[in-house]
Protein: alpha-1,6-mannosyl-glycoprotein 6-beta-N-acetylglucosaminyltransferase
Amino acid sequence: MSQVSVVSFVICGFAQVEPFIPSEYTCEGMLERVNAYIQHQDFCRRSSPFPTANDSRSWSGNPPSPFLQLPNSTALIWAPNITAPACWPPLSALRLFLSPEDSSCVKTCQDAGLICEPAFFPFINNIEAFNGLNAQCESLEAEKNHVFPAVHVDRRECFQQKEPLLFSCAGVSAKHQRLCPCRDYIHGQVALCRDCL
Structure:
């Protein structure tokens, strides 16, 4: 018997591998996602639920920002005393981070054990988010770029996204720190956050 056939015999002869299908790829997992999407998304809304790109409003409440810093963390959450706009996933799942330079939001969120949620970008595209993350903006501009909202590392210029179609979790820039909207997820059902059901 050759050495190759002995190795293949050992691998095939003793390795009884049970098939494994992650929960999110089963019929039950798919139906759970479809049910959540249908129940929580409003397809009949005429006006956009999202704030405009240049919207810098004074939020009611104390503090006068919709964001609060998590204890023992650099992350921000949506303040529970601020009425959240109607959206799905719910803003209670938001965890906002300032990425290191040369890092995407995908990586920044993964490093925190979360995933990037593009639906949250319109809610963090404001001066309150920059201030909450201590970005120390010397100026604030709205421009079209796939890495915005972000802070220019050297010049301390803060940039809002002017074109909502350019919001991206994947964009990377060596000169910018990005504002990253992350959220938690259910183990075995990454498409859904813990507050989504």
About this structure: Confidence is low (pLDDT under 50) at residues 4-10, 58-62. The two ends are 57 Å apart (CA to CA). The CA atoms of residues 58 and 64 lie 7 Å apart.
